[in-house]
Design brief:
Number of helices: 19
Family: Belongs to the major facilitator superfamily. Sugar transporter (TC 2.A.1.1) family.
CATH topology of the largest domain: Growth Hormone, Chain: A
Largest sheet: none
CATH architecture of the largest domain: Up-down Bundle
Strand content: under 5%
CATH superfamily of the largest domain: MFS general substrate transporter like domains
Order of helices and strands: HHHHHHHHHHHHHHHHHHH
Number of strands: 0
Number of domains: 2
Radius of gyration: 22 Å
Pfam family, one: Sugar_tr
Subcellular location: Membrane
Keywords: Membrane, Transmembrane, Transmembrane helix
Protein name: MFS transporter
Oligomer: single chain
């Protein structure tokens, strides 16, 4: 009788076990490293420019190289993980990070640094669809939303660690210390590579390829000898789509939503995060106010993500993304209107934006991993990651030009407009997946 009861328990409903904790570390470590390795260039770029005598063209190319790489890696990793599986590609990112970090140490030209950073971006692009899909396909539904949302917090933690470690290394005063700064991610990459050894393939992916015996072996190893394929919720066979058919199906609307909301949530964030001191200076906030304000805004980005992670299973996904875009958009609108106001009001509005956008930030990994079936899940995440980074690159490039040509007030209005596009797309297209099994969340028939 007890065995029959176990057979009826879905793996989406099992308690969190040690394997789930280990998988969270394995995938979460990738986001720490992503935040670290993408942010470390900001610490070292000035020193690289001095020693390698980079002109403005190569300085800009080095700064943008990783974002270009993410665009390539997101598409490539998303497609390959659907064809070859999650586990094989789980090691691609760490290997690229280690080899290219070592390569950067010996770089002697802007072109060499650009190539290594481009390849690093490809590795980061692989991480989004591969690590996210592998984690979500093992997690119980009760913990899926909060665990995926927490990955965004880990990214910011990695970014903060990069600034701390990078500045400590540069404090030596050696002009070539930047080489050790860019080498430092290799140590984290090596740790991540070792931790990921022994990771099994996703049983859901194995079943989608007709490898039922392999899937059953994984299930028994992870969940116990009494579990089998019967404990995986059945996927509607009509939803087993080829990648070429995705836009012709009902999933085309979901792909549009993921692309729009992800892109609209990162363009203003990357612009504000990268140019906070410059933006604050344009808002007449200088001196200690600017220094403390930049730190406070960065902290509030993290706080916003933490709060959203705590609320995601209470509010639900749809309500959270709508409120996040609404209130953060209003904050940006007010920043444009009160661009000539005093420092305290500006910092309050800036901080409000950083806090409220946390909901949309954490959903960047939750939504695309939940609302697509196994066959196209990693591909959808890859597209979202790729297109959002195009938006991030455009936003980062546009801010200094916009500040100079049309001023801070109009720049904030544009950022608000982008945020409200995200709001409209969420109102029209955002589904609710709270408390659903992965199969039900991904189903078009509810």
């Amino acid at each position: 009788m007890r065995e029959n009861n176990i057979k009826m328990i879905s793996i989406d409903d099992v308690p969190l076990n040690g394997f789930h904790q280990l998988m969270t570390v394995r995938s979460g470590g990738g986001w720490v490293l992503d935040g670290y390795i993408l942010s470390i260039i900001g610490v070292a770029l000035g020193y690289i420019t001095l020693e390698l005598q980079l002109n403005s063209f190569w300085e800009g190319m080095v700064a943008a190289s990783a974002l270009i790489g993410i665009f390539i890696g997101g598409f490539l990793g998303g497609w390959l993980s659907g064809v070859l599986g999650r586990r094989r590609l789980y090691f691609v990112g760490p290997v690229i990070f280690i080899l290219c970090s070592v390569g950067q140490f010996w770089a002697n030209s802007g072109l060499e640094v650009f190539i290594y950073r481009l390849l690093i971006g490809v590795g980061v692009g692989f991480e989004y669809p591969v690590a996210g899909a592998l984690l979500v396909e093992f997690l119980p539904k009760k913990y899926r939303g909060s665990r995926l949302a927490a990955l965004t917090i880990l990214w910011f933690a990695g970014a903060a660690l990069a600034y701390i470690v990078g500045n400590l290394i540069l404090s030596s005063g050696n002009l070539s210390a930047w080489r050790y700064v860019l080498l430092s991610p290799a140590l984290i990459g090596l740790f991540l590579l070792v931790v990921r050894l022994g990771t099994p393939e996703s049983p859901r992916w194995l079943m989608s390829k007709g490898k039922d015996e392999d899937a059953e072996r994984v299930i028994k190893k992870v969940y116990g000898a009494s579990f089998s394929l019967k404990n995986i919720p059945a996927q509607n066979s009509e939803e087993k789509l080829s990648l070429s058919a995705i836009l012709k199906s009902g999933y085309g609307a979901r792909m549009l939503f993921v692309s729009l909301f992800w892109t609209c949530s990162v363009i203003p964030v990357f612009a504000v995060y990268a140019f906070a001191p410059k933006v604050l200076d344009s808002l007449n906030i200088t001196g200690d106010w600017a220094a403390y304000g930049s730190v406070a805004i960065t902290v509030l980005f993290v706080v916003g993500c933490i709060v959203a992670t705590k609320l995601i299973d209470i509010m639900g996904r749809r309500l959270m993304v709508i409120h996040s875009f609404l209130w953060s958009g209003i904050a940006l609108l007010l920043l444009g209107y009160f661009s000539d106001a005093g420092g305290l009001l500006i910092l309050i509005l800036f901080g409000s934006y950083a806090l409220f956008i946390g909901g949309a930030q954490v959903l960047q990994l939750v939504y695309p991993n939940e609302i697509f079936p196994t066959e196209i899940r990693s591909f959808a995440v890859g597209i979202g990651a790729s297109l959002s980074r195009v938006g991030a690159a455009i936003g980062t490039w546009f801010v200094p030009i916009s500040l100079q040509s049309i001023g801070i007030g109009q720049t904030m209005y544009i950022a608000a407009g982008i945020t409200f596009i995200g709001l409209i797309s969420s109102i029209l297209l955002a589904p609710e997946t709270k408390s659903m099994s992965l199969e039900k969340a991904a189903s078009l028939q509810r």
